[in-house]
């Protein structure tokens, strides 16, 4: 399967190649569906298949929890993909770090969502909480329900506790 995928990736995009790529993607979806159906038998916690198009350039790996047999979050292994940390003053060489493209989102203190804690660490960002960063409902002061009285009896809205963009 991996050899076929590699050959298709290198081939020029003809209608036949596009059809094969689509069939490969459909095969992934069917595998994920089988995993989801098998979870009921194992009494596993809720598991969601990755989004369509997840890991097009690599290989999806789904490991099992050794104690329960339940599938863990899918990982995307992309051959040759590494991230390099900046050179530390006390070290003469750059330290290579590799993060697996595992979708286990964390929200950084910079307000950005990182695909997992490894990528947040590579960006030198502290983690605010697990999960995607929640969109700030307060885009402008006019969006916010907290009212205040202004000069000459005018009423205006003011964002409290968050910065409006």
Question: What are its keywords?
Answer:
165 residues; 3 helices; alpha+beta; Kazal_dom_sf; single chain; 9 strands; Wheat Germ Agglutinin (Isolectin 2), domain 1
Structure description:
This protein is of the alpha+beta class and 165 residues long. The protein contains 3 helices and 9 strands; from the N terminus they run ααββββββαβββ. It folds into 3 domains: 1-77, no CATH class; 82-134, Wheat Germ Agglutinin (Isolectin 2), domain 1; 136-165, no CATH class. A 3-stranded antiparallel β-sheet has the order 6-5-7. It is globular, with a radius of gyration of 23 Å.
Quick take:
The chain has 3 helices and 9 strands, in the order H-H-E-E-E-E-E-E-H-E-E-E.
- What's the overall average pLDDT, rounded? 71
Q: Label the structural class.
A: alpha+beta
Biggest sheet strand line-up? 6-5-7
What is the global morphology? globular
Q: Could you say how many structural domains there are in total? A: 3
Major beta-sheet overview: 3 strands, antiparallel
Alpha-carbon distance between the two ends: 48 Å
Strand residues, percent: 15-25%
What's the total count of β strands? 9
How much helix, percentage-wise, in residues? 25-40%
| Number of helices in the DSSP assignment | 3
Order of helices and strands: HHEEEEEEHEEE
Poorly predicted regions are 83-89
Which value, in Å, is the CA radius of gyration? 23 Å
């Amino acid at each position: 399967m991996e050899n076929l995928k590699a050959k298709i990736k290198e081939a020029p995009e003809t209608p036949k190649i596009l059809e094969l790529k689509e069939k490969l993607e459909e095969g992934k979806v069917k595998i994920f569906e089988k995993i989801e159906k098998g979870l009921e038998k194992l009494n596993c916690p809720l598991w969601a298949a990755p989004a369509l198009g997840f890991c097009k350039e690599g290989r999806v790996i789904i490991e099992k929890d050794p104690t329960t047999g339940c599938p863990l979050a899918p990982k995307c292994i992309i051959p040759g993909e590494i991230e390099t940390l900046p050179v530390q003053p006390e070290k003469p060489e750059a330290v290579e770090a590799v993060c697996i493209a595992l979708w286990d989102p964390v929200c950084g203190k910079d307000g950005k969502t990182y695909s997992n804690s490894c990528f947040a660490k590579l960006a030198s960002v502290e983690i605010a909480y697990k999960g995607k960063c929640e969109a700030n409902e307060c885009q402008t002061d006019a969006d916010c329900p907290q009212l205040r009285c202004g000069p000459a009896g005018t009423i205006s809205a003011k964002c409290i506790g968050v910065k409006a963009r």
